[in-house]
Amino acid sequence: MFEGIWIVAPPGCTSVDFVLEPFAHGTFRQAHRGNLIFDRTSSPLQDPVQWLRSVFNSGLHSVMDANYDCVVKVMRNQTAYKSCEWEPELRVLSQADGLARAFNKEVRPATKISFANAMLFQMTQAYGTNFNKGERIVVEQMLPGRFVKVNSNNGWFDTIDWLVGYDSATAQAFSHWTWHHTGGECLVCDLQGVQQQGRWLFTDPGIHSKRPDGRLGFTDLGQQGMNAFFSTHKCNELCKHWNKPNVIVDVGLNIRPRRSSTWARANVKASTAVHLQNGGTCYAHAVSSVVRAAEGRIVGRKVESHDRLVQCIVAKHGWKGEFVERVLAEVCPPKRLSYAQVSASDAKKALQMGRAVVLSFTLTAEQWDGPGSFAEFFQQQAQGVLTQVPLAISGPKDGDGHAVVVVGFDFVSGRWRIKNSWGDNWSDGGYFHVSDSWISQIGAQFFDVFFYEHELSDADRRAYHNQLQSWSVGKGK
Questions:
Q1: 175 near 200, Cβ under 8 Å?
Q2: Which one-letter DSSP state was computed for residue 422?
């Protein structure tokens, strides 16, 4: 449940009608023009308009008879039969609205900040060929006036100086203030909507959180998203005295500012090429992939080829396997990289920040090749999600270790996406998927590879700052 957001159908509202053809769409949802239809004779409400104004946190524009303009949002590429599938979006709206109210009270800006709330409905019958009975949809007010986007979730912003009377400075300051007010715990961005009568009315915001866990949706890029905002933000009179990060840790930001939102699912930057190991060299391929991905985030850094780095590692550590940590301790320092063994939770955070991680684990012989084993499962279900580890018959000393590269985690399904080194003809093009429960059963060891600005060379830092200056993040870009 979300306070102030989870709302039943308004009394007397007989239906929600909407046009089958969407007028806008994003990566995961699409928007349709629609109407809330009231039967005034049966409605207990004296004034449905007044009721809707309080629900939507805004004034309503033109009213035609008993029909009220609205926007109907539906999921793309899937059907939302459960209310929980809309939880992240509704939670973001609720938190953003709460912060906006606090901002208006504390800062007292000339232009107030507000967010248009939403209502959740269940379809009672199928509609057309793409909408099903029981499907959950979200209904919002159709915002009156000219719709503009002030900033995105990846550092892009628009001064909208070309629109006379629009106060982009207050909107940008609000994003900054949310980080300042929460002590760096979160930052509200992706501000888009209309400005009328001395206030902004925004919809579809995004929130970056310090510890992203999926509760705020796929546009929560965590610390990397906060870094992206501050890498391009220019303080104005409202926000110039507020706190902000002293150092942007991840110098090699792999998020380029752009108008459209950046999604966490596509945020990990690592080579998609799948390699074929010889002997027990999985450790060398895993380390090479993650180290090269880390170097690739450093602007201007010339990255050694995968095969060359694997050869150098194997030449020293051999063809019969090696502990991942021992190899990282040797490979990382000369490249001015750091590494750390991390928990599963911290591995998810690294993925949210765009970093692939190494996973090392051990299975017994029957767990590798017996009934219900790793090999048998992915032979039969290449795109399946492995959830259970068969009980071991032999002792732990009989186990064989393996190292792979984790490139993604889906917070909705609890699924890890992992790149193997057994060639691209194995399983799902060389990749496989496992559940959170499987990870908890195997004694997994995760290794994160990263860097700090103060540890990089002067040439690395110069290249980064030159890159920032070359990005055009102003109007129309």
A1: no
A2: B
Phi-psi region at 214: left, alpha or beta (left = phi > 0; alpha = psi -120 to 50)? left
Q: Does residue 477 register a pLDDT over 70?
A: no
Q: In 17-121, which residue ranges form alpha helices assigned H by DSSP?
A: 48-56, 87-107
Classify residue 433: in a domain, yes or no. Answer: yes
Is 102's pLDDT higher than 70?
A: yes
One domain, residues 200 and 301: no
Identify whether residues 201 and 347 lie together within a single domain.
Answer: no
The domain tally of the chain equals 2
Reported as a single tens digit per residue, the pLDDT across 355-384 is 899 999 999 888 898 888 899 999 999 889
According to DSSP, the β-strands at 148-149 and 186-189 are unpaired
222-232 helix and 168-181 helix, angle to the nearest 10 degrees: 140
Residue 425: left if φ>0, alpha if ψ -120 to 50, beta else—which one? alpha
Sorted by sequence, the CB contacts under 8 Å of residue 397 that are 6+ apart come out as none
Which residue reads 């010889």 in tokens?
A: 278
Q: Which residues on neighbouring strands pair with residue 139, listed in sequence order?
A: 72, 119
DSSP 105-154: HHH--SSEEEE--EEEEE-SS-BTTTB-TT-EEEEEE---S--EE-B-SS
180 shares a domain with 71 = yes
DSSP E strands: which ranges in 135-256? 136-141, 148-149, 186-189, 192-196, 199-203, 206-209
Q: Which domain holds residue 410?
A: 282-452
